[in-house]
TrEMBL record:
Coiled-coil ranges (or none): none
Enzyme Commission code(s) on record: 2.7.7.60, 4.6.1.12
UniProt keyword annotations, A-Z: Isoprene biosynthesis, Lyase, Metal-binding, Multifunctional enzyme, Nucleotidyltransferase, Transferase
Pathway: Isoprenoid biosynthesis; isopentenyl diphosphate biosynthesis via DXP pathway; isopentenyl diphosphate from 1-deoxy-D-xylulose 5-phosphate: step 2/6; Isoprenoid biosynthesis; isopentenyl diphosphate biosynthesis via DXP pathway; isopentenyl diphosphate from 1-deoxy-D-xylulose 5-phosphate: step 4/6
Any one Pfam family match given in the protein's UniProt record, by short name: IspD
Annotated source species: Neorhizobium alkalisoli
Gene3D superfamilies in alphabetical order: 2-C-methyl-D-erythritol 2,4-cyclodiphosphate synthase, Spore Coat Polysaccharide Biosynthesis Protein SpsA, Chain A
Site (Positions MEP for the nucleophilic attack): R163, K220
GO biological process: isopentenyl diphosphate biosynthetic process, methylerythritol 4-phosphate pathway; terpenoid biosynthetic process
Entry binding sites for 4-CDP-2-C-methyl-D-erythritol 2-phosphate: D249, V250, H251, H275, S276, D297, I298, G299, T373, T374, N375, E376, F380, R383
Protein known as: Bifunctional enzyme IspD/IspF
Length: 400
């Protein structure tokens, strides 16, 4: 059989309630987050990105439409997935998925549990190679390595079960589509609902099922601890989304009674000229924060042409930028401001400035830095014509 003689459709079973995976209020396990995304999103992505993947059917519970939509809203190619509703049992849900897939050009089918998000493309390729070798029924499995014991109702070990030839079954269990659908139809007609997987239905129907090497990573998330471990695994392997933004601002000095820097008023024989209170430090830091999420600059949000901001405290601008960052899923980790001025002296006010930044941003004092330097009497700063500020903000964003 060559690549052009068959097309592999996918049925992902996601209609279960997952009673063993935690409290009911936590929701079905296939929609629980691991690595910042729902389990089903990880599973679907494995098949959507597999180069041999044909039409994909996801079988969901009728009550889970909103959950499914939310789980896949940011998933590329999710629009090509066919959605159908499952039944009261997994067996019935698979049957509904097979019926939906029968309306496509698929000749073969992989039936996979949504709660197995770590299925690898290598495993899928091995199944596809089995189809190409002429096998119509394929079961990924791994040999049993533990010693098996048979116990009795009395709580005692009755015998040791030889493990030679024993395997743990996995999914995707894969078949010629017409054959496995016919087997499911026969089982449904006879009201047989006692099959534990699709391979057992195939065996009952007399269809040969060949073993394919499974994967130890292709685990099924069954209980809450499984989900917690999957989350730890993905979180540990995911690079953190750390972003750094820079901002620069300068304002002219003119005769006056003082300047406001980092929200602190410092008496001086000059003042800063600007539409607002001209706090160059907070303006630069506002731009730095906005840069971490691509939200423009301070002029986009508070244009100088808008008279409502005339004389406004720049604290308003910084609070707004911090709010935007948090709405984008960011956590502000550090704020650093460098002031460039010949006068006034910043050193005596540095602690108050850091405390003000800590208050406005809602972060600890040790994450707020204020530094100052002169311009060695060079340029407009050296001539005391203006004050400049450079700011850097570090933000960590959570995954989608």
């Amino acid at each position: 059989m060559d690549d052009d003689s068959f097309r592999i459709g996918i049925v992902i079973v996601a209609a279960g309630r997952g009673e063993r995976a935690g409290a009911p209020e936590d929701g079905p396990k296939q929609y629980r987050p691991i690595g910042g995304r729902p389990v089903i999103a990880h599973t679907l992505e494995r098949f959507l990105t597999w180069h041999r993947s044909g039409p994909i059917v996801v079988v969901i519970h009728p009550d889970d439409e909103a959950l499914y939509a939310a789980a896949t809203v940011n998933l590329p190619q999710a629009a090509r997935v066919i959605i159908t509703f499952g039944g009261e049992t997994r067996q019935r849900s698979v049957y509904e998925g097979l019926r939906a897939l029968s309306g496509t050009d698929a000749t073969h089918v992989m039936i996979h549990d949504a709660a197995r998000p770590f299925v690898e493309h290598d495993l899928l390729d091995r199944v596809a190679e089995g189809f190409m070798a002429g096998h119509d029924g394929l079961l990924p499995a791994i040999p049993i390595s533990d010693t098996l014991k048979r116990g009795g109702s009395d709580g005692l070990v009755h015998e040791t079960v030889p493990r030679a030839g024993l395997y743990a079954a996995q999914t995707p269990q894969s078949f010629l589509l017409s054959e496995i659908r016919t087997a499911h139809e026969k089982a449904a007609a006879l009201r047989r609902e006692d099959f534990t997987d699709d391979a057992s239905i195939a065996e009952w129907a007399g269809l040969p099922v060949h073993l394919v090497e499974g994967s130890v990573d292709n685990i099924k998330l069954t209980v809450k601890r499984d989900i917690d471990m999957a989350d730890e695994r993905l979180t540990a392997s995911t690079l953190p989304d750390v972003r750094t933004g820079n901002g620069y601002d300068v304002h002219q000095l003119e005769p006056g009674d003082g300047v406001t820097l980092c929200g602190i008023f410092i008496p001086h024989d000059q003042k800063l000229s600007g539409h607002s209170d001209a706090d160059v430090a907070l303006h630069a830091l506002t731009d730095a924060l906005l840069a971490t999420c691509g939200a423009g600059d301070i002029g986009d949000h508070f244009p100088p042409s808008d008279m409502q901001w005339k004389g406004a405290a720049s604290k308003i601008f910084l609070e707004h930028a911090a709010k935007i960052v948090r709405e984008h899923g960011g956590t502000i980790m550090n704020a650093d401001v460098s002031l460039i001025a010949e006068a006034p002296k910043v050193g005596p006010h540095r602690q108050a400035m850091r405390e003000k930044l800590s208050e406005i941003l809602g972060i600890s004092l040790d994450r707020c830095s204020v530094k100052a330097t002169t311009n060695e009497k060079i340029g407009f700063v050296g001539r005391r014509e203006g004050i400049a500020a450079i700011a850097t903000a570090t933000v960590v964003f959570r995954g989608d």
